[in-house]
Amino acid sequence: MTSLSYQYVVLRCVPRVDREEFLNVGVVLYCQASDFLDVAWEVDRDRLAAFAPGLDLDRVCDALDFVAGVCAGDRRGGAAAGKPISQRFGFLKAPKSTVLQPGPVHGGITADPAADLTRLRDHLVG
After folding, report:
1. Per-domain residue ranges of the chain
2. Which one, of 98, 124, 99, 126, lies nearest residue 28 by Cα?
3. What pLDDT does residue 2 have?
4. Which helix (H) or strand (E) holds 95?
5. Residue 42 · residue 64 · CB < 8 Å
6. Phi, psi dihedral angles at 67 (to 5 degrees)
7. Residues 28/71, Cβ–Cβ less than 8 Å
């Protein structure tokens, strides 16, 4: 079994940046050795609506779909999607002052990046 190192960030929905309160809505995982970059996300609409009444939940999902496009390197990710995979992860992990923000970068070891992405999403989101 091959051990591969990876990095990941948890994506946070921060409806009011001034309050610094957030709910985790996704995980981006990057494994350089296997050329893997992907996002797994889930928006609990009822929970997020209770947390932030008036928040446009469709726009949050659109932002997460943009992240998926950057990871996949397709048109949904705009100009960022055309960059090399390491630069795409760099773009996604950079701090932002928007409703969708990445948390700190964490790391781990895996034999299956896709399986670990699902595990992290199941453990950290919701």
Report:
1. 4-124
2. 124
3. 85
4. none
5. no
6. -60, -45
7. yes
Cα gap 119→87, rounded to integer Å: 24
Residue 34 and residue 121 in contact, taking contact as beta carbons nearer than 8 Å: no
Cα atoms found within 13 Å of the Cα of residue 109, Cβ hemisphere only: 3
CA–CA separation, 116 and 88 (whole Å)? 20
What type of residue is 23?
A: L
pLDDT digits (tens, 9 = 90+) for 16-66: 888 889 999 999 999 999 999 999 999 999 999 999 999 999 999 999 999
- Residues facing residue 30 across a β-bridge: 7, 37
Q: Under a CB-based contact definition with an 8 Å cutoff, are residues 100 and 60 in contact?
A: yes
Task: Give the Cα separation of 126 and 121 in Å (integer).
Answer: 8
Separation between Cα atoms, residue 58 and residue 81, nearest integer Å = 21
Q: How far is it, in rounded angstroms, from Cα 80 to Cα 117? A: 21
Number of CB atoms found within 10 A of residue 71's CB: 24
